[in-house]
TrEMBL record:
This is alcohol dehydrogenase (NADP(+)). It comes from Kitasatospora kifunensis (Streptomyces kifunensis). Residues 14-341 form the Enoyl reductase (ER) domain. Its EC number is 1.1.1.2. It catalyses: a primary alcohol + NADP(+) = an aldehyde + NADPH + H(+). Belongs to the zinc-containing alcohol dehydrogenase family. The lineage of its organism: Bacteria, Bacillati, Actinomycetota, Actinomycetes, Kitasatosporales. Keywords: Metal-binding, Oxidoreductase, Zinc.
Length: 346
């Protein structure tokens, strides 16, 4: 066991505060990682505030972890001391169900062991990346290519794979038209990745306030959803709509923008129930779907793709003592486009 400094929420809706936690000793197949940077995901805020249901406290959030290998167990074959590595949203799974065998560990039949706010196979709570170190089984660690700086790579471990996986699943590429709803932490990477895949990309945002950024990041069009003409002029246009917002929408209006056999993929998870008008799907065999992160192999594929195509997160680097202020700014949409904590400031 080792004691490390971390930032934790002591109770639901409480401000995060500096504390210490215990990390397990390095086991046979474990990798101990010195965390250098960790992204702040909107889901961190949902869970700290119990927006998605009862949670485990004290909670150390953080599942966009980038760092350097400090120690490896005797059975580790994939990594060595000094390697640049990352850890995303999960740190274990059953490994034997059909989904795990297919590389879809995020859909493990028993449920994956999440990086934080979960209970590991040892019966102990998992603690996330707002900390100095983490110990993870090598099978749930990925390599960060040299072409990516660790600070801008960290958000790829959640926001990057969350957008990359559905774009690949629904065949975004040359000749396809993709719309990204919302230009935030997820959306800005969705634009970059869809553009790098060769798709025609349109951002759908409430206003044109971020239009310059959207076009710079790779969007071909940027349209305001507050303008009724947007829905009239873009009707039946898109093959894929990635919805990255965590708020209820007029889903029927967005579905009307899909071509025949088009799919709207929901990546944001509103805390309240939403309504879907089934008639909006009926006319052109349109689909409403969702997607959750990606498996370990696909996450590595995503990182390699991003390094090859120069795709990285747009970040604002902060000190650990700025975390609570950063949470409020995320809720106010006052970040362009991902906060990343410099863990040297813990």
């Amino acid at each position: 066991m080792s004691t490390v400094t971390a930032y934790a929420a002591p109770a639901a809706k409480a401000p995060l505060e500096r504390t210490t936690i215990e990390r397990r000793a390095v086991g046979e197949n474990d990798v101990q990682i010195d965390i250098t940077f960790v992204g702040i995901c909107h889901s961190d805020i949902h869970q700290v505030r119990e927006g998605w249901g009862k949670a485990i406290f004290p909670m150390v959030p953080g599942h966009e972890i980038a760092g350097v290998v400090r120690e490896v167990g005797p059975g580790v074959t994939k990594f060595k001391v000094g390697d640049r590595v990352g850890v995303g949203c999960m740190v274990d799974s059953c490994r034997v169900c059909d989904n795990c065998k297919a590389g879809l560990e995020q859909y493990c039949a028993d449920g994956p062991v999440w990086t934080y706010n979960a209970v590991g196979k040892d019966g102990q709570p998992t603690y996330g990346g707002y900390s100095q170190k983490v110990v993870v089984d090598e099978n749930y660690v990925v390599r960060i290519p040299d072409g990516l700086s660790l600070d801008v790579a960290a958000p790829l471990l959640c926001a990057g794979i969350t957008t990359y996986s559905p774009l690949r699943r629904w065949n975004a590429g040359p000749g396809s038209k993709v719309a990204v709803v919302g230009l935030g932490g997820l959306g800005h990477l969705g634009v970059k990745i869809a553009h790098a895949l060769g798709a025609e990309v349109t951002v759908l945002s409430q206003s044109l306030r971020k239009k310059g950024d959207g076009l710079r990041l790779g969007a071909d069009q940027y349209r305001a959803t507050s303008d009724p003409k947007t829905f009239e002029e873009l009707a039946g246009r898109f093959d894929i709509i990635l919805c990255t917002v965590s708020a209820p929408l007029d889903f029927a209006a967005y579905v009307s923008l899909l071509r025949t056999d088009g799919t709207m993929v929901n990546l944001g998870l509103p805390e309240e129930p939403v309504q879907i008008v089934l008639q909006s799907l009926f006319g052109n065999r349109r689909s409403m779907s969702s997607s959750g992160i990606g498996g370990i192999a696909e996450t590595q594929e995503m990182l390699d793709f991003c390094a090859e195509h120069g795709v990285a997160a747009e970040i604002e680097l902060i000190r650990a003592d700025e975390i609570n202020d950063a949470y409020e700014r995320v809720l106010a949409s006052d970040v362009r486009y991902r906060f990343v904590i410099d863990t040297a400031t813990l």
